[in-house]
Specification:
The protein has about 625 residues and is mainly beta. The protein folds into two domains: about 10-95, Cytochrome Bc1 Complex, Chain D, domain 2 (Orthogonal Bundle); about 100-610, Methanol Dehydrogenase, Chain A, CATH 2.140.10.10. The chain is about 10% helix and about 30% strand. It contains six helices and 37 strands. Strands 1-3-4-5-6 form a five-stranded antiparallel β-sheet, with no helix packed on it. Helix 1 (about 10-25) packs across helix 5 (about 70-80) and helix 4 (about 50-55) crosses helix 5 (about 70-80). The longest helix is centred in the N-terminal third of the chain and has 15 residues, at about 10-25. The two termini are about 40 Å apart.
Length: about 625
Protein backbone atom coordinates (compact mmCIF):
# COMPACT_ATOMS: atom_id res chain seq x y z
CA UNK A 1 0.00 0.00 0.00
CA UNK A 2 2.16 2.83 -1.14
CA UNK A 3 0.28 6.06 -0.46
CA UNK A 4 2.36 8.32 -2.71
CA UNK A 5 0.12 8.07 -5.79
CA UNK A 6 -3.56 9.03 -5.59
CA UNK A 7 -5.60 7.32 -8.27
CA UNK A 8 -8.94 8.71 -9.45
CA UNK A 9 -11.12 6.17 -7.69
CA UNK A 10 -13.99 7.19 -5.41
CA UNK A 11 -16.79 5.22 -3.82
CA UNK A 12 -19.23 6.58 -6.39
CA UNK A 13 -17.22 5.56 -9.46
CA UNK A 14 -16.09 2.33 -7.88
CA UNK A 15 -19.49 0.89 -7.04
CA UNK A 16 -20.64 -0.30 -10.47
CA UNK A 17 -17.14 -0.95 -11.73
CA UNK A 18 -16.10 -2.70 -8.54
CA UNK A 19 -19.24 -4.82 -8.56
CA UNK A 20 -18.58 -6.01 -12.10
CA UNK A 21 -14.93 -6.78 -11.38
CA UNK A 22 -15.79 -8.54 -8.13
CA UNK A 23 -18.37 -10.74 -9.84
CA UNK A 24 -15.91 -11.57 -12.60
CA UNK A 25 -12.83 -12.24 -10.46
CA UNK A 26 -13.88 -12.92 -6.87
CA UNK A 27 -17.51 -13.95 -6.43
CA UNK A 28 -16.94 -17.54 -7.50
CA UNK A 29 -14.98 -18.15 -4.31
CA UNK A 30 -16.19 -15.56 -1.81
CA UNK A 31 -19.94 -15.70 -2.54
CA UNK A 32 -19.83 -19.46 -1.99
CA UNK A 33 -17.22 -19.42 0.74
CA UNK A 34 -16.23 -22.65 2.41
CA UNK A 35 -13.45 -23.92 4.61
CA UNK A 36 -10.76 -21.23 4.86
CA UNK A 37 -12.08 -18.91 2.15
CA UNK A 38 -13.48 -15.77 3.82
CA UNK A 39 -17.03 -14.93 2.84
CA UNK A 40 -17.97 -11.62 1.26
CA UNK A 41 -19.56 -10.61 4.56
CA UNK A 42 -16.28 -11.20 6.39
CA UNK A 43 -14.32 -9.37 3.69
CA UNK A 44 -16.60 -6.36 4.08
CA UNK A 45 -15.39 -5.86 7.65
CA UNK A 46 -11.91 -5.06 6.43
CA UNK A 47 -10.83 -1.54 5.44
CA UNK A 48 -10.21 -0.90 1.73
CA UNK A 49 -6.46 -0.66 2.29
CA UNK A 50 -6.38 -4.15 3.81
CA UNK A 51 -8.31 -5.64 0.87
CA UNK A 52 -6.03 -3.85 -1.60
CA UNK A 53 -2.97 -5.16 0.23
CA UNK A 54 -4.31 -8.72 0.03
CA UNK A 55 -4.82 -8.43 -3.73
CA UNK A 56 -1.30 -7.08 -4.09
CA UNK A 57 0.32 -9.82 -2.02
CA UNK A 58 -1.24 -13.10 -0.93
CA UNK A 59 -4.02 -13.02 -3.56
CA UNK A 60 -1.80 -11.66 -6.32
CA UNK A 61 -2.24 -14.76 -8.53
CA UNK A 62 -6.01 -14.24 -8.49
CA UNK A 63 -5.63 -10.52 -9.21
CA UNK A 64 -3.18 -11.03 -12.07
CA UNK A 65 -3.87 -8.59 -14.90
CA UNK A 66 -5.84 -6.12 -12.79
CA UNK A 67 -4.56 -2.57 -12.64
CA UNK A 68 -4.09 -0.74 -9.35
CA UNK A 69 -7.15 1.31 -10.26
CA UNK A 70 -9.26 -1.83 -10.77
CA UNK A 71 -8.08 -3.40 -7.51
CA UNK A 72 -9.01 -0.22 -5.65
CA UNK A 73 -12.46 -0.34 -7.22
CA UNK A 74 -12.97 -3.88 -5.91
CA UNK A 75 -11.72 -2.88 -2.47
CA UNK A 76 -14.08 0.09 -2.31
CA UNK A 77 -17.02 -1.99 -3.48
CA UNK A 78 -16.41 -4.67 -0.86
CA UNK A 79 -15.48 -2.66 2.21
CA UNK A 80 -18.11 -1.36 4.60
CA UNK A 81 -15.50 1.24 5.59
CA UNK A 82 -15.43 2.88 2.15
CA UNK A 83 -15.98 6.67 2.16
CA UNK A 84 -19.47 7.97 1.54
CA UNK A 85 -20.42 10.63 -1.03
CA UNK A 86 -19.45 14.04 0.25
CA UNK A 87 -16.54 12.80 2.35
CA UNK A 88 -14.10 15.75 2.42
CA UNK A 89 -11.05 13.49 2.12
CA UNK A 90 -12.06 10.28 0.33
CA UNK A 91 -8.48 9.27 -0.50
CA UNK A 92 -7.51 9.13 3.19
CA UNK A 93 -8.71 5.52 3.29
CA UNK A 94 -5.60 4.43 1.41
CA UNK A 95 -3.39 6.07 4.00
CA UNK A 96 0.32 6.78 3.73
CA UNK A 97 2.83 3.99 3.40
CA UNK A 98 3.62 2.24 6.68
CA UNK A 99 7.01 3.97 6.70
CA UNK A 100 5.23 7.35 6.78
CA UNK A 101 2.89 6.46 9.64
CA UNK A 102 3.70 7.73 13.12
CA UNK A 103 4.88 5.20 15.67
CA UNK A 104 2.05 3.14 17.15
CA UNK A 105 3.22 3.84 20.70
CA UNK A 106 5.24 6.40 22.61
CA UNK A 107 8.93 6.50 21.76
CA UNK A 108 11.12 5.21 24.58
CA UNK A 109 13.10 7.87 26.39
CA UNK A 110 16.84 7.47 26.23
CA UNK A 111 18.89 4.75 24.53
CA UNK A 112 18.05 1.12 25.29
CA UNK A 113 20.48 -1.02 27.25
CA UNK A 114 22.75 -3.26 25.13
CA UNK A 115 21.29 -6.63 24.16
CA UNK A 116 22.54 -9.45 26.37
CA UNK A 117 21.97 -12.80 24.65
CA UNK A 118 22.47 -14.59 27.99
CA UNK A 119 19.58 -12.74 29.66
CA UNK A 120 16.18 -14.39 30.34
CA UNK A 121 14.39 -14.82 27.04
CA UNK A 122 11.81 -16.37 24.77
CA UNK A 123 13.67 -16.47 21.49
CA UNK A 124 11.81 -17.69 18.40
CA UNK A 125 8.88 -20.11 18.35
CA UNK A 126 9.90 -21.82 21.59
CA UNK A 127 12.43 -21.07 24.35
CA UNK A 128 14.39 -24.15 23.28
CA UNK A 129 14.87 -25.78 19.86
CA UNK A 130 12.79 -28.79 20.98
CA UNK A 131 9.70 -26.63 20.24
CA UNK A 132 7.95 -27.75 23.44
CA UNK A 133 6.70 -24.20 24.10
CA UNK A 134 7.56 -24.71 27.78
CA UNK A 135 8.98 -21.94 29.96
CA UNK A 136 10.62 -23.53 33.04
CA UNK A 137 11.41 -20.18 34.68
CA UNK A 138 8.46 -17.83 34.02
CA UNK A 139 9.20 -15.38 36.84
CA UNK A 140 5.98 -16.16 38.71
CA UNK A 141 4.30 -19.27 40.14
CA UNK A 142 1.02 -21.10 39.72
CA UNK A 143 -0.35 -19.39 42.84
CA UNK A 144 0.34 -16.00 41.23
CA UNK A 145 -1.63 -16.73 38.06
CA UNK A 146 -5.09 -15.63 39.35
CA UNK A 147 -3.54 -12.21 40.04
CA UNK A 148 -2.44 -11.60 36.44
CA UNK A 149 -3.64 -8.22 35.19
CA UNK A 150 -3.03 -6.11 32.10
CA UNK A 151 0.17 -4.09 32.44
CA UNK A 152 0.10 -2.56 28.96
CA UNK A 153 -1.37 -3.10 25.49
CA UNK A 154 0.08 -2.20 22.11
CA UNK A 155 -2.41 -1.47 19.31
CA UNK A 156 -1.08 -1.79 15.78
CA UNK A 157 -2.10 -2.47 12.18
CA UNK A 158 -1.90 -5.86 10.55
CA UNK A 159 -3.25 -9.31 11.32
CA UNK A 160 -2.09 -12.88 11.90
CA UNK A 161 0.93 -11.44 13.62
CA UNK A 162 3.91 -13.37 14.91
CA UNK A 163 4.24 -13.88 18.65
CA UNK A 164 6.47 -11.76 20.86
CA UNK A 165 10.18 -12.55 21.06
CA UNK A 166 11.79 -11.26 24.26
CA UNK A 167 15.49 -10.86 25.06
CA UNK A 168 16.02 -9.24 28.46
CA UNK A 169 14.01 -6.02 28.39
CA UNK A 170 13.62 -5.95 24.59
CA UNK A 171 10.48 -7.25 22.89
CA UNK A 172 10.19 -7.79 19.13
CA UNK A 173 7.02 -8.50 17.16
CA UNK A 174 6.04 -8.63 13.48
CA UNK A 175 2.78 -7.78 11.74
CA UNK A 176 1.00 -8.36 8.47
CA UNK A 177 1.30 -4.63 7.79
CA UNK A 178 5.00 -5.28 7.17
CA UNK A 179 6.10 -3.48 10.32
CA UNK A 180 8.57 -5.08 12.74
CA UNK A 181 8.65 -3.43 16.16
CA UNK A 182 11.20 -3.24 18.94
CA UNK A 183 9.45 -2.40 22.22
CA UNK A 184 10.39 -2.07 25.85
CA UNK A 185 9.15 -5.33 27.36
CA UNK A 186 8.05 -3.72 30.66
CA UNK A 187 6.32 -0.62 29.34
CA UNK A 188 5.45 -1.14 25.65
CA UNK A 189 7.18 2.05 24.50
CA UNK A 190 8.77 1.89 21.04
CA UNK A 191 12.53 1.79 20.44
CA UNK A 192 12.17 1.56 16.67
CA UNK A 193 10.03 0.22 13.84
CA UNK A 194 11.40 -1.44 10.71
CA UNK A 195 9.11 -1.35 7.68
CA UNK A 196 9.65 -4.47 5.61
CA UNK A 197 8.77 -4.67 1.93
CA UNK A 198 5.74 -6.91 2.52
CA UNK A 199 3.65 -8.63 5.15
CA UNK A 200 5.42 -10.80 7.67
CA UNK A 201 3.61 -13.54 9.55
CA UNK A 202 6.55 -15.30 11.18
CA UNK A 203 7.95 -14.76 14.63
CA UNK A 204 11.53 -13.58 14.91
CA UNK A 205 14.72 -15.18 16.18
CA UNK A 206 17.72 -13.25 17.48
CA UNK A 207 21.39 -14.19 17.60
CA UNK A 208 24.91 -12.89 17.26
CA UNK A 209 26.18 -12.03 13.80
CA UNK A 210 29.80 -12.11 12.58
CA UNK A 211 31.75 -10.42 9.79
CA UNK A 212 29.30 -7.54 9.64
CA UNK A 213 31.09 -4.37 10.79
CA UNK A 214 28.85 -2.23 12.96
CA UNK A 215 26.42 -5.07 13.67
CA UNK A 216 26.62 -7.23 16.80
CA UNK A 217 23.24 -8.96 17.01
CA UNK A 218 20.70 -9.68 14.29
CA UNK A 219 16.96 -10.23 14.18
CA UNK A 220 15.77 -12.78 11.60
CA UNK A 221 12.33 -13.29 10.04
CA UNK A 222 10.67 -14.08 6.70
CA UNK A 223 8.26 -11.90 4.72
CA UNK A 224 5.97 -12.22 1.75
CA UNK A 225 8.54 -11.02 -0.76
CA UNK A 226 9.57 -14.71 -0.63
CA UNK A 227 12.57 -13.66 1.41
CA UNK A 228 14.46 -14.26 4.61
CA UNK A 229 15.51 -11.00 6.23
CA UNK A 230 18.16 -9.99 8.77
CA UNK A 231 18.13 -6.60 10.48
CA UNK A 232 20.16 -5.18 13.35
CA UNK A 233 18.45 -6.10 16.63
CA UNK A 234 19.85 -2.99 18.33
CA UNK A 235 18.90 -0.38 15.73
CA UNK A 236 16.54 -1.93 13.17
CA UNK A 237 18.95 -1.20 10.32
CA UNK A 238 18.82 -3.71 7.42
CA UNK A 239 21.70 -6.19 7.12
CA UNK A 240 20.70 -8.61 4.37
CA UNK A 241 17.71 -9.93 2.44
CA UNK A 242 17.73 -13.23 0.53
CA UNK A 243 15.04 -14.63 -1.77
CA UNK A 244 14.43 -18.26 -0.79
CA UNK A 245 11.84 -19.38 -3.36
CA UNK A 246 10.41 -18.16 -6.67
CA UNK A 247 7.03 -19.92 -6.62
CA UNK A 248 3.88 -17.84 -7.07
CA UNK A 249 1.47 -17.41 -4.19
CA UNK A 250 3.89 -18.04 -1.33
CA UNK A 251 2.50 -17.48 2.16
CA UNK A 252 5.56 -17.47 4.40
CA UNK A 253 4.10 -18.41 7.78
CA UNK A 254 6.27 -20.81 9.76
CA UNK A 255 8.82 -19.10 11.98
CA UNK A 256 12.47 -19.51 10.98
CA UNK A 257 14.62 -21.42 13.45
CA UNK A 258 18.09 -20.06 14.21
CA UNK A 259 20.61 -22.67 15.29
CA UNK A 260 24.41 -22.68 15.39
CA UNK A 261 24.82 -19.89 12.84
CA UNK A 262 22.26 -21.33 10.40
CA UNK A 263 18.80 -19.91 9.70
CA UNK A 264 16.22 -22.56 8.75
CA UNK A 265 13.28 -21.11 6.82
CA UNK A 266 10.11 -23.16 6.12
CA UNK A 267 8.28 -22.51 2.82
CA UNK A 268 4.49 -22.65 2.39
CA UNK A 269 1.93 -21.55 -0.20
CA UNK A 270 -1.64 -20.47 -0.83
CA UNK A 271 -1.89 -22.69 -3.93
CA UNK A 272 -4.88 -24.64 -2.65
CA UNK A 273 -6.93 -21.42 -2.59
CA UNK A 274 -5.68 -20.14 -5.94
CA UNK A 275 -6.38 -23.49 -7.63
CA UNK A 276 -10.09 -22.86 -7.14
CA UNK A 277 -9.77 -20.54 -10.14
CA UNK A 278 -10.27 -22.75 -13.19
CA UNK A 279 -7.70 -20.71 -15.14
CA UNK A 280 -4.98 -21.13 -12.53
CA UNK A 281 -2.14 -23.42 -13.62
CA UNK A 282 -2.48 -26.12 -10.99
CA UNK A 283 -0.12 -26.92 -9.41
CA UNK A 284 3.68 -26.51 -9.43
CA UNK A 285 4.57 -25.68 -5.83
CA UNK A 286 6.53 -28.09 -3.62
CA UNK A 287 7.13 -27.28 0.06
CA UNK A 288 10.71 -26.98 1.21
CA UNK A 289 13.11 -26.07 3.99
CA UNK A 290 15.88 -23.60 3.20
CA UNK A 291 19.10 -23.29 5.22
CA UNK A 292 20.97 -19.98 5.06
CA UNK A 293 24.22 -18.76 6.55
CA UNK A 294 22.94 -16.42 9.27
CA UNK A 295 25.91 -14.08 8.80
CA UNK A 296 25.67 -13.58 5.05
CA UNK A 297 22.24 -14.78 3.90
CA UNK A 298 23.89 -17.25 1.51
CA UNK A 299 21.73 -20.32 0.83
CA UNK A 300 23.56 -23.40 2.10
CA UNK A 301 21.01 -26.00 1.02
CA UNK A 302 17.36 -26.42 0.13
CA UNK A 303 15.40 -29.63 0.63
CA UNK A 304 11.97 -30.26 -0.87
CA UNK A 305 9.34 -32.39 0.82
CA UNK A 306 9.41 -34.78 -2.14
CA UNK A 307 12.16 -35.63 -4.62
CA UNK A 308 9.66 -35.68 -7.49
CA UNK A 309 9.44 -32.55 -9.62
CA UNK A 310 6.05 -31.29 -10.85
CA UNK A 311 5.34 -32.32 -14.45
CA UNK A 312 2.30 -32.39 -16.74
CA UNK A 313 0.16 -35.39 -15.91
CA UNK A 314 -3.50 -34.86 -16.92
CA UNK A 315 -6.08 -32.29 -18.04
CA UNK A 316 -8.53 -30.68 -15.65
CA UNK A 317 -12.31 -30.65 -16.10
CA UNK A 318 -12.03 -27.65 -18.44
CA UNK A 319 -9.34 -29.27 -20.56
CA UNK A 320 -6.40 -27.32 -19.14
CA UNK A 321 -3.09 -28.96 -18.37
CA UNK A 322 -2.47 -29.92 -14.74
CA UNK A 323 0.87 -30.45 -13.03
CA UNK A 324 1.90 -32.62 -10.13
CA UNK A 325 2.89 -33.61 -7.58
CA UNK A 326 2.35 -30.44 -5.60
CA UNK A 327 1.93 -29.40 -1.97
CA UNK A 328 3.65 -30.53 1.17
CA UNK A 329 4.02 -27.01 2.59
CA UNK A 330 5.89 -26.55 5.86
CA UNK A 331 3.69 -24.20 7.91
CA UNK A 332 5.57 -24.40 11.21
CA UNK A 333 8.98 -23.84 12.77
CA UNK A 334 11.58 -26.62 12.27
CA UNK A 335 12.63 -28.60 15.35
CA UNK A 336 16.29 -29.28 16.16
CA UNK A 337 17.71 -32.59 17.46
CA UNK A 338 21.37 -31.82 18.24
CA UNK A 339 22.21 -35.33 19.50
CA UNK A 340 21.15 -37.03 16.26
CA UNK A 341 22.16 -34.14 14.02
CA UNK A 342 18.62 -33.91 12.63
CA UNK A 343 15.93 -31.38 11.85
CA UNK A 344 12.26 -32.39 12.03
CA UNK A 345 9.52 -30.74 9.97
CA UNK A 346 5.80 -31.41 9.69
CA UNK A 347 4.10 -31.00 6.31
CA UNK A 348 0.69 -30.25 4.87
CA UNK A 349 -1.56 -31.86 2.28
CA UNK A 350 -1.04 -32.47 -1.43
CA UNK A 351 -2.81 -30.26 -4.00
CA UNK A 352 -3.23 -32.76 -6.85
CA UNK A 353 -3.86 -36.48 -7.27
CA UNK A 354 -0.31 -37.01 -8.53
CA UNK A 355 1.16 -38.88 -5.55
CA UNK A 356 3.23 -36.77 -3.12
CA UNK A 357 5.18 -38.96 -0.70
CA UNK A 358 6.07 -36.05 1.59
CA UNK A 359 2.59 -34.63 2.18
CA UNK A 360 1.00 -34.96 5.65
CA UNK A 361 4.30 -36.30 6.93
CA UNK A 362 6.97 -35.88 9.56
CA UNK A 363 10.35 -35.65 7.84
CA UNK A 364 13.82 -35.90 9.38
CA UNK A 365 16.63 -34.05 7.58
CA UNK A 366 20.36 -33.96 8.16
CA UNK A 367 21.19 -30.74 9.96
CA UNK A 368 24.37 -30.13 7.91
CA UNK A 369 23.28 -31.14 4.42
CA UNK A 370 19.49 -31.23 4.40
CA UNK A 371 19.52 -34.83 3.18
CA UNK A 372 16.31 -36.66 4.09
CA UNK A 373 17.10 -39.36 6.66
CA UNK A 374 13.56 -40.64 6.99
CA UNK A 375 9.94 -39.64 6.51
CA UNK A 376 6.72 -41.01 7.95
CA UNK A 377 3.68 -40.14 5.85
CA UNK A 378 0.86 -40.20 8.38
CA UNK A 379 -1.91 -39.83 5.79
CA UNK A 380 -1.67 -40.71 2.10
CA UNK A 381 -3.72 -39.23 -0.74
CA UNK A 382 -4.85 -36.17 1.21
CA UNK A 383 -5.23 -34.27 -2.06
CA UNK A 384 -7.08 -31.03 -1.48
CA UNK A 385 -7.87 -27.61 -2.91
CA UNK A 386 -10.57 -25.20 -1.80
CA UNK A 387 -13.83 -25.19 -3.79
CA UNK A 388 -14.31 -28.86 -4.57
CA UNK A 389 -16.21 -30.52 -6.12
CA UNK A 390 -17.10 -27.53 -8.32
CA UNK A 391 -13.58 -26.39 -9.24
CA UNK A 392 -12.12 -27.74 -12.47
CA UNK A 393 -8.77 -28.44 -10.79
CA UNK A 394 -10.21 -30.72 -8.11
CA UNK A 395 -8.15 -33.83 -7.44
CA UNK A 396 -9.73 -37.29 -7.63
CA UNK A 397 -10.50 -38.22 -4.97
CA UNK A 398 -10.62 -35.07 -2.86
CA UNK A 399 -8.90 -35.45 0.49
CA UNK A 400 -10.01 -34.02 3.86
CA UNK A 401 -7.24 -31.36 4.19
CA UNK A 402 -5.70 -32.91 7.30
CA UNK A 403 -2.39 -31.06 7.27
CA UNK A 404 0.17 -31.18 10.05
CA UNK A 405 0.38 -27.49 10.85
CA UNK A 406 2.16 -27.36 14.18
CA UNK A 407 5.82 -27.88 15.02
CA UNK A 408 7.05 -31.32 16.02
CA UNK A 409 7.97 -31.52 19.73
CA UNK A 410 11.13 -33.42 20.69
CA UNK A 411 10.45 -34.77 24.19
CA UNK A 412 12.89 -36.45 26.57
CA UNK A 413 11.46 -38.90 29.11
CA UNK A 414 12.86 -39.28 32.61
CA UNK A 415 14.75 -42.42 31.55
CA UNK A 416 16.43 -40.52 28.72
CA UNK A 417 14.36 -42.04 25.90
CA UNK A 418 13.05 -39.52 23.41
CA UNK A 419 9.82 -39.26 21.44
CA UNK A 420 8.49 -36.92 18.79
CA UNK A 421 5.00 -35.48 19.30
CA UNK A 422 3.02 -34.37 16.24
CA UNK A 423 -0.52 -33.03 15.87
CA UNK A 424 -2.78 -33.03 12.83
CA UNK A 425 -5.94 -31.26 11.67
CA UNK A 426 -7.59 -34.68 11.66
CA UNK A 427 -7.63 -34.41 15.46
CA UNK A 428 -4.86 -37.00 15.73
CA UNK A 429 -1.92 -36.71 18.11
CA UNK A 430 1.05 -39.02 17.54
CA UNK A 431 4.10 -40.10 19.50
CA UNK A 432 6.84 -41.19 17.09
CA UNK A 433 10.16 -42.96 17.63
CA UNK A 434 13.07 -40.86 16.29
CA UNK A 435 15.32 -43.96 16.39
CA UNK A 436 12.98 -46.06 14.25
CA UNK A 437 12.31 -43.78 11.26
CA UNK A 438 9.37 -42.13 13.00
CA UNK A 439 7.49 -45.34 13.82
CA UNK A 440 4.21 -44.63 15.66
CA UNK A 441 4.48 -45.44 19.39
CA UNK A 442 0.99 -44.30 20.32
CA UNK A 443 -1.80 -42.34 18.71
CA UNK A 444 -5.02 -40.68 19.86
CA UNK A 445 -7.77 -39.16 17.75
CA UNK A 446 -9.22 -36.38 19.89
CA UNK A 447 -11.79 -35.19 17.32
CA UNK A 448 -13.00 -35.95 13.82
CA UNK A 449 -11.16 -32.86 12.57
CA UNK A 450 -11.70 -30.67 9.52
CA UNK A 451 -9.90 -28.16 7.32
CA UNK A 452 -10.10 -25.73 10.26
CA UNK A 453 -10.28 -28.39 12.92
CA UNK A 454 -8.19 -30.73 14.99
CA UNK A 455 -4.74 -29.53 16.00
CA UNK A 456 -3.85 -26.25 14.33
CA UNK A 457 -0.96 -24.01 15.45
CA UNK A 458 0.71 -25.98 18.18
CA UNK A 459 0.76 -27.97 21.40
CA UNK A 460 2.95 -27.57 24.50
CA UNK A 461 4.76 -30.13 26.63
CA UNK A 462 6.25 -30.02 30.12
CA UNK A 463 8.38 -32.74 31.73
CA UNK A 464 5.59 -35.33 31.68
CA UNK A 465 2.63 -34.37 29.52
CA UNK A 466 1.66 -32.85 26.21
CA UNK A 467 -1.23 -30.37 26.18
CA UNK A 468 -3.24 -30.36 22.97
CA UNK A 469 -5.79 -27.80 21.83
CA UNK A 470 -8.56 -28.79 19.42
CA UNK A 471 -10.09 -26.19 17.10
CA UNK A 472 -13.00 -27.77 15.17
CA UNK A 473 -14.32 -24.28 14.46
CA UNK A 474 -15.55 -25.73 11.16
CA UNK A 475 -16.71 -29.27 11.87
CA UNK A 476 -20.29 -30.19 11.06
CA UNK A 477 -20.01 -33.82 12.17
CA UNK A 478 -18.91 -34.01 15.78
CA UNK A 479 -17.00 -30.92 16.89
CA UNK A 480 -14.96 -31.33 20.07
CA UNK A 481 -13.13 -28.06 20.72
CA UNK A 482 -11.21 -28.06 23.96
CA UNK A 483 -7.97 -28.89 25.74
CA UNK A 484 -6.55 -32.36 26.47
CA UNK A 485 -3.59 -33.55 28.54
CA UNK A 486 -1.80 -36.77 27.54
CA UNK A 487 0.98 -38.48 29.50
CA UNK A 488 3.77 -38.81 26.98
CA UNK A 489 5.46 -41.90 28.44
CA UNK A 490 2.51 -44.22 27.73
CA UNK A 491 -0.10 -42.15 25.87
CA UNK A 492 -2.64 -42.13 28.70
CA UNK A 493 -5.24 -39.37 28.41
CA UNK A 494 -5.20 -37.64 31.81
CA UNK A 495 -7.98 -35.13 31.31
CA UNK A 496 -10.08 -33.39 28.68
CA UNK A 497 -11.78 -30.04 29.16
CA UNK A 498 -14.44 -29.25 26.52
CA UNK A 499 -14.51 -25.62 25.43
CA UNK A 500 -17.23 -23.61 27.18
CA UNK A 501 -19.82 -21.73 25.15
CA UNK A 502 -19.54 -17.98 25.64
CA UNK A 503 -21.10 -14.88 24.11
CA UNK A 504 -19.10 -12.67 21.75
CA UNK A 505 -19.56 -9.25 20.20
CA UNK A 506 -19.53 -11.05 16.84
CA UNK A 507 -21.98 -13.70 15.71
CA UNK A 508 -20.22 -15.69 12.99
CA UNK A 509 -18.64 -19.13 13.35
CA UNK A 510 -15.57 -17.61 14.97
CA UNK A 511 -17.56 -16.92 18.13
CA UNK A 512 -16.30 -20.27 19.31
CA UNK A 513 -14.34 -21.90 22.10
CA UNK A 514 -12.09 -23.39 19.42
CA UNK A 515 -8.46 -23.57 20.53
CA UNK A 516 -6.47 -22.97 17.36
CA UNK A 517 -3.80 -20.63 18.76
CA UNK A 518 -0.58 -22.28 19.89
CA UNK A 519 -0.44 -23.29 23.56
CA UNK A 520 2.20 -22.42 26.16
CA UNK A 521 3.06 -24.18 29.44
CA UNK A 522 4.91 -23.24 32.62
CA UNK A 523 5.38 -25.37 35.78
CA UNK A 524 1.89 -26.39 36.89
CA UNK A 525 -0.03 -24.23 34.39
CA UNK A 526 -1.14 -24.35 30.75
CA UNK A 527 -2.08 -21.15 28.92
CA UNK A 528 -4.52 -21.47 26.00
CA UNK A 529 -6.58 -18.91 24.09
CA UNK A 530 -9.77 -19.50 22.11
CA UNK A 531 -11.42 -17.84 19.15
CA UNK A 532 -14.06 -16.21 21.35
CA UNK A 533 -11.34 -13.91 22.69
CA UNK A 534 -10.88 -15.68 26.02
CA UNK A 535 -7.36 -16.24 27.33
CA UNK A 536 -7.31 -18.91 30.02
CA UNK A 537 -4.90 -20.60 32.40
CA UNK A 538 -5.55 -24.26 33.24
CA UNK A 539 -4.10 -26.25 36.12
CA UNK A 540 -1.77 -28.79 34.55
CA UNK A 541 -2.75 -31.44 37.10
CA UNK A 542 -6.49 -31.59 36.39
CA UNK A 543 -7.41 -29.02 33.73
CA UNK A 544 -9.37 -26.74 36.06
CA UNK A 545 -9.50 -23.14 34.85
CA UNK A 546 -7.65 -20.98 37.37
CA UNK A 547 -7.75 -17.69 35.42
CA UNK A 548 -9.85 -16.34 32.54
CA UNK A 549 -9.46 -12.98 30.81
CA UNK A 550 -11.76 -11.88 27.97
CA UNK A 551 -9.53 -9.86 25.65
CA UNK A 552 -12.42 -8.73 23.44
CA UNK A 553 -15.28 -7.88 25.79
CA UNK A 554 -14.31 -4.31 26.61
CA UNK A 555 -11.83 -1.82 25.22
CA UNK A 556 -8.36 -1.80 26.75
CA UNK A 557 -6.40 1.43 26.92
CA UNK A 558 -3.29 1.08 24.79
CA UNK A 559 0.13 2.61 25.44
CA UNK A 560 -1.06 5.83 23.79
CA UNK A 561 -3.95 6.03 26.25
CA UNK A 562 -6.54 5.27 23.57
CA UNK A 563 -9.24 2.58 23.91
CA UNK A 564 -8.57 -0.43 21.68
CA UNK A 565 -10.17 -3.83 21.16
CA UNK A 566 -8.91 -7.35 20.84
CA UNK A 567 -10.87 -10.00 19.00
CA UNK A 568 -10.54 -13.56 17.71
CA UNK A 569 -7.43 -15.28 19.11
CA UNK A 570 -5.65 -17.55 16.64
CA UNK A 571 -2.19 -18.30 15.25
CA UNK A 572 1.06 -17.77 17.14
CA UNK A 573 0.68 -18.19 20.89
CA UNK A 574 1.55 -16.66 24.26
CA UNK A 575 5.15 -16.05 25.26
CA UNK A 576 6.21 -15.92 28.91
CA UNK A 577 9.41 -14.52 30.40
CA UNK A 578 10.63 -12.26 33.23
CA UNK A 579 7.34 -12.38 35.11
CA UNK A 580 5.35 -11.25 32.06
CA UNK A 581 2.85 -12.95 29.74
CA UNK A 582 2.46 -11.58 26.21
CA UNK A 583 -0.34 -12.60 23.85
CA UNK A 584 -1.87 -11.26 20.65
CA UNK A 585 -5.63 -10.72 20.29
CA UNK A 586 -7.34 -9.81 17.02
CA UNK A 587 -7.65 -11.37 13.57
CA UNK A 588 -8.75 -9.06 10.77
CA UNK A 589 -12.17 -9.78 9.32
CA UNK A 590 -13.09 -12.57 11.71
CA UNK A 591 -14.75 -10.45 14.38
CA UNK A 592 -16.72 -7.23 14.38
CA UNK A 593 -14.66 -6.31 17.43
CA UNK A 594 -11.99 -5.11 15.02
CA UNK A 595 -12.11 -1.34 14.64
CA UNK A 596 -10.49 0.62 11.84
CA UNK A 597 -9.56 4.25 11.36
CA UNK A 598 -8.70 6.03 8.12
CA UNK A 599 -5.07 4.95 8.31
CA UNK A 600 -6.04 1.29 8.07
CA UNK A 601 -5.36 0.50 11.73
CA UNK A 602 -7.40 -2.37 13.05
CA UNK A 603 -8.34 -4.11 16.27
CA UNK A 604 -5.12 -5.97 16.91
CA UNK A 605 -3.60 -5.87 20.37
CA UNK A 606 -0.43 -7.22 21.87
CA UNK A 607 -1.41 -7.50 25.53
CA UNK A 608 1.15 -7.75 28.33
CA UNK A 609 0.12 -9.22 31.68
CA UNK A 610 1.98 -9.23 34.98
CA UNK A 611 1.13 -10.13 38.57
CA UNK A 612 -1.17 -7.36 39.85
CA UNK A 613 -0.30 -5.39 36.70
CA UNK A 614 2.99 -4.28 38.28
Amino acid sequence: MGGCVVLPVTAATADARGKALYEQRCAGCHDRASDRTPSREILSRNPPAFILSAMSQVMAPMAAGLSQDEMKAIALYLSAAAPQPGDPNPNAIWGPSSAQLPLDGPKCEGPPPPIDLSSPQWNGWSPRPDNARYQPDPGFTKTDVPRLKVKWAFHYPGSKNGQATVIGNRLYVTSMSGAVYALDARSGCVYWRFDSLAATRSSVSIGGIANRPGHRTALYFSDWTKSAVAIDAETGEPIWRAKVDDSSGLQMTGSPTLYDGVLLVPISTGNEAFARNDDYVCCKFIGSLVALDANSGEILWKTYTTDKKPEPYRLNAKGKQMWGPSGGSIWSAPTIDPARGLIYVATSNSHTDAFHDGADAVIAMDIKTGAVRWKNQLLKDDNYIIGCPAAANCPHPVGPDFALGDSVILHTLKDGKQMLIAGQKSGDVYALDPDADGRIIWRHRLSSGSSLGGVEFGSAADGDNVYVGISDVVNFRDPKPGLTAIRIADGTILWNIPAPRTACRWTNIFCSGAISMAITAIPGVVFAASMDGHFRAYAAADGNVIWDFNTAADPINDVLGKPAYGGVMDGAGPTIVNGMVYVHSGYAGRSTANIYDLKGREGNLLIAFSVDGK
